[in-house]
Specification:
single chain; 283 residues; mainly alpha; 11 helices
Length: 283
């Protein structure tokens, strides 16, 4: 609504056109984290005042000691520094699953979205497969592949690939038809259209889709490790749960979050570096 100043109408900017300054943006971005930390500190102090041995909400000092114990001290039983052993095991499974799922989704998603016969044959099939809850078939994977690494990687692939594949099919379908018509007018074959027109357009979108699937991939990994594993971040969290060791579980959760954020950041940087035109068009 317009206001008046000295009898003259003054136009106010709409909220959708008001942007924070850089300093304000940094403060607003940090505000939810600060409030969450303050809420935890308040609740922890209140519980520890009643019971100094309370394990549910340990103090920051206890959490720091728990992280240092897992990250820098060798385990008396195995001689390993457990945080790094668990991180290496989990990242190997996660990256293997994501790599296979990305290749499958990229190749088949583009093929199904581009070729009518492929779309007619597989579009419905992929849609049904994507609706199956991956965790529901985890026992089947354990029966087929055993309790080793294959079943855990397979769960990530089955959970991520169909969703990313459907997204690729939709993105190919949204491509301007003019591009296809121009390429055909210039005499391009189906392979040339796929490799020189569609793939370059889809690669940055594929990276976006994988970024959105990171959280699901971590979920499947943690679930698989919690059920059958001897090492891994998810295995360790569920093992420590038996002892209510929140001073160690909370740093593990924060570490997983940091790893997920680092993977997302790396993919975002890769997208900007490899496809700057896509990032410029988005900004």
């Amino acid at each position: 609504m317009d206001a008046t100043a000295g009898g003259r109408p003054v136009k106010r900017k709409r909220m959708i056109n008001v942007y924070p300054t850089r300093g304000t943006a940094l403060f607003l971005a940090a505000l939810p984290f600060i409030l969450l930390l303050l809420a935890y500190l308040f609740a922890s102090a209140a519980r520890l005042a009643i019971n100094p041995d309370d394990k549910l909400l340990p103090s920051l000092a206890s959490i720091g000691a728990g992280f240092a114990r897992m990250a820098f001290e060798a385990d008396p039983r195995t001689g390993d520094v457990l945080l790094w052993v668990d991180t290496a095991a989990s990242l190997a499974r996660l990256l293997a699953g994501l790599a296979i799922a990305t290749v499958m989704a990229g190749v088949f998603g583009i093929a199904i979205g581009l070729v009518p016969y492929m779309r007619t044959t597989f579009n419905g099939f992929v849609g049904v497969i994507a609706m199956i809850p991956p965790l529901a078939i985890l026992p089947i994977l354990f029966i087929i592949f055993g309790l080793g690494e294959t079943s855990k990687v397979a769960l990530i692939v089955i959970g991520v690939a169909p969703v990313v594949m459907r997204d690729m099919i939709l993105r190919v379908d949204e491509m301007p038809r003019e591009l296809m018509v121009k390429a055909q007018t210039l005499g391009a074959s189906t392979w040339q259209i796929a490799l020189r027109v569609v793939v370059p357009q889809m690669m940055p979108r594929l990276i976006d889709s994988v970024r959105l699937s990171l959280c699901s991939a971590w979920l499947f990994l943690i679930a698989a490790e919690a059920i059958a594993s001897q090492a891994g971040l998810g295995y360790r969290i569920f093992l420590l749960r038996r002892y209510l060791a929140m001073d160690t579980i909370l740093p593990y959760v924060a570490w997983i979050t940091l790893l997920a954020f680092a993977l997302d950041f790396g993919l975002r940087r890769l997208q900007r570096k490899a496809y700057p035109w896509f990032a410029q068009g988005r900004s």
